[in-house]
Prior knowledge:
The structure is a homodimer of 343-residue chains.
Chain A: H1 12-20, E1 31-33, E2 40-43, E3 47-57, H2 69-85, E4 90-100, H3 106-122, E5 126-134, E6 140-150, E7 165-169, H4 174-191, H5 203-210, H6 216-224, E8 231-234, H7 239-250, E9 253-257, H8 265-274, H9 278-284, E10 291-295, H10 300-303, E11 309-316, E12 322-325, E13 331-333
Parallel strand pairs in A: 4-5, 9-12
Antiparallel strand pairs in A: 1-2, 2-3, 3-6, 4-6, 7-10, 7-11, 8-10, 9-11, 12-13
Helix pairs in contact in A: 2-3, 4-5, 4-8
Amino acid sequence: MSETRTEIASLGEFGLIQRLSQGFEATLPDTVKGIGDDTAVIDLGHEYGLLTTDLLLEGVHFDLTFSPLRHLGYKAIAVNVSDIAAMNGTPGQVTVSLAISNRFSVEALEDLYAGIKAACADFRVDLVGGDTSSSRSGLLISVSVFGKVAKEKIAYRATARPNDLLCVTGDLGGAYLGLQVLEREKQVYLANPGMQPQLKGNEYIIQRQLKPEARMDVVYELDEAGVIPTSMIDVSDGMASDLLHICSQSGVGAMVFEENLPIDEQVYLAATELNLSPLTAAMNGGEDYELLFTIRQADYDKIKNNPKVSVIGYITDQPDVVQLTSKGGNKVPITAQGWNHFS
Amino acid sequence: MSETRTEIASLGEFGLIQRLSQGFEATLPDTVKGIGDDTAVIDLGHEYGLLTTDLLLEGVHFDLTFSPLRHLGYKAIAVNVSDIAAMNGTPGQVTVSLAISNRFSVEALEDLYAGIKAACADFRVDLVGGDTSSSRSGLLISVSVFGKVAKEKIAYRATARPNDLLCVTGDLGGAYLGLQVLEREKQVYLANPGMQPQLKGNEYIIQRQLKPEARMDVVYELDEAGVIPTSMIDVSDGMASDLLHICSQSGVGAMVFEENLPIDEQVYLAATELNLSPLTAAMNGGEDYELLFTIRQADYDKIKNNPKVSVIGYITDQPDVVQLTSKGGNKVPITAQGWNHFS
């Protein structure tokens, strides 16, 4: 054991991963891409294999006070499939490892698995393995997904080009505000267990938090339209943070227009009620699991009539100059305020 | 939530997995094998892909009182590579997800990663991804490995045939007795923190517990010798339990000869000292991560001079009649007493 003690919190999640993964160079001829994109990329000969994994921990990533186990099972699969979608790939096989304390009954786990099964059906993936262990504290779910993509169709983070159009699927900020509503109702409930939670009018944003979808539908639609994104990432840490990943890895900048950001009416209403900024929720909220991607201008006609896709800006040739044009016409720098589980 | 409450402990680990995985049929054309073997098998066109995952939890699978983090990192990779070896495959890409409480320093995690790095080098695999989260209690490591195998060389559990020879690599029971020695010294230390642990003479079995190897060396040697095992599994739950998996899945029986079991001298000595049966340790100890496999009798000449391989018995045509011929000539049924983390 070394004598210095550096606290994990002093590095943050990205800094820690960066420090720990130092010196791990890929050595195998079939490792096409290691750490640094939504999935690893493996050469399979005629096509690429995609491998991704995610860990969900009770008390860190979810709160069973308001997360039904069925939704949690669905979400565990969806967030991993979302990483395959972000490579423009098709998911195939899934493994699920569980660690569970004896406070859970077999019936509770069957609810969790009902959600896993629903997600497997929706995203057309097969559960092919896993592991079940006891845990001394709470529930933990580790999911891995293997997928495939044609070599000429893969979409990395690092390949956005100046003048590409910046697009996002669905809408932004809902998952974050859904969480705020759920947290508020939890506090109300803890203070007064007799109270019924006030969730009416917030159904959509609560679903965005508890049961997010992976946008495989858009991956298939872009393919049918003949569009290969020039770069892509899924919105997990927050749109701003994820856009900064694309820009820094591609060596480009970006301009985003506030008026083009897709924000649902419920996000505005909940933001007003909770005294939060809907713009901050959309830019930094995270967990929307939408796809943020760039396309060639020449492909605009192929996506302009797709109601699931919004063009929110464009890519520039100024490395790391990433800005928002506000509704008032001001240009403000976009900074990352994504999740840091260690802070 | 259902109204009945069934306790997880009433089903056990295998029963629980069986119940939860009900109704998960493979639906994709490239899913060759789902749950039920050492790894999942995915059709890649010219060859098969292999996917496996394992979860290691502090307090359940390891005890940091006596597991150095460096060895733990090594073991986390080795036990997963062992599953790829058990399919007669070659490991390629590895993902590592960590959950850590803030009691760990960055330097401690660097020790863990030094072990992961050493294992990646030894087994020639690339670390290609993962995830780092905070945990409210202790350390948790989730590893997934992707590997490949030529279609004609894959070794399943379900394909042993009557009259095949039953073989095992290395020796058995060491990891279990290593754990017993470590547990004893922990109790001594807890009772009297001034005492130095008495590990002398037990170095080999302690290493077997703390830093097991995946037997990729034997996989490569069998390949060079032109031997394709007719069935294979790795010894993780205990040789008896793992042999029963081969027999029940293959619809065959087996005869094992006690006198042929490879047991190291340190296992005999430690067993005597601890008043345990060396035979029980070898048959039911678990965590040896050796390979248990069957070969055609015609291949005997190709393995007979390999000092790493012992022929311990043969396969019979009597389904589920799995027996041990003792040194005294008695035939006794072999039963599973593998690990059950829920008991």
